Amino acid sequence: MVELTSASEVIYELRSGTLEGAALTLDESLTLLDDGFDLRVILIMDFSDGGDVLLAKPGIDSLEKLRGRRIAVETTAVGGIVLDSALRKGGLKPDDVEIVPCSIEEHVDRYPEVDAVVTFETMRTKIKKLGAVTLFDSSEIPDRIVDVLVVKAEVAESHSRSLSRLLAGYFRAREHLAANPDDAAKRMAVRLGLSPEEMLTAYEGMRLPELDENRKILTGAQPPLERNLLQSLSGIGKLADGRFLPDGEP
């Protein structure tokens, strides 16, 4: 396991060959696919349902008031999606604001220097503690931001048993979270630097698809995500790979 703090780092390491698989958004995975990387999506981890946000300084109480303001954002697919959607809702264009590129681990430190920031957990909780207000979140663009687990195509063939065991463990952990949320939150909170209560609140911003929904999406029984974009990319027919999902309910 290799832990990196930003999607930009993850994508760089995938491109360089250091990583063989990664947790990315679907949009980031499609960008890599379009660049010629042969990937397989083996798990739909979550749909962002409020977890990705645009936070602003107190006193900036509407999207329209972002005109001329400085907005910190990680220049990845998710940052672009949230910022673009928020600006459109506020009747603004990218040229109407000053975009300050910065990685996710810089968001808390850069917040005092900017007027707003596009971020997600765990930074969302930490920045809100500094008094930031939410102007826009991903609940307004349902099913648009999807977190997935991808592996390189050759890994899917050479490490099939390990991938099956990994996903079986994932769904056992999901089962524990559902049955014993307080215990699960205590275990996860220490690693993420949140309190158990904040950990559970963070999950409120995500919708976690069950095994059955994963199977429907990854085997083609459910209409494909991002339909228009998917049809325009070569190699898209092999992207979804549901064969490593556990059999039956976890």
Structure overview:
- The protein has 250 residues and is of the alpha+beta class.
- Helices cover 40% and strands 18% of the residues.
- It is built from eleven helices and nine strands.
- It has helices spanning 7-16, 26-34, 77-89, 107-110, 123-128, 153-158, 160-179, 181-192, 196-203, 211-218, 227-231, and strands at residues 21-25, 39-48, 53-56, 70-73, 98-101, 116-119, 133-137, 146-152, 206-207.
- It has a five-stranded mixed sheet with strand order 5-4-6-3-7. Strands 1-8-2-9 form a four-stranded antiparallel sheet.
- Helix 3 (77-89) links the parallel strand 4 (70-73) and strand 5.
- Helix 7 crosses helix 8 (181-192).
- The two termini are 23 Å apart.
Residues in β-strands, percent: 15-25%
What class would the helix/strand composition place it in? alpha+beta
Q: Determine the N-to-C terminus distance.
A: 23 Å
Oligomer: single chain
Element order: H for helix, E for strand? HEHEEEHEHEHEEHHHHEHH
